[in-house]
Amino acid sequence: MTARANQIKDYLGGLFGAEDEVLLAVKKNAKEAGLPNIHVSSTVGKLLYCLAMIHRPLKVLEIGTLAGYSAIWLARALPPEGKIISLECYPEHAALARKNIAFAGFENRVEVREGMAGDLMEQMIQKGEGPFDMVFIDADKENYLLYLDKAIQLSRPGTLILGDNLIPKEDELHPHYSEPKVIYRFNQQLATDKRLESILVPTLRNNGRIDALGIAIVK
Ligand code: SAH
Ligand code: MG
Question: In whole angstroms, what is the distance from residue 129 CA to residue 117 CA?
Answer without folding.
Answer: 14
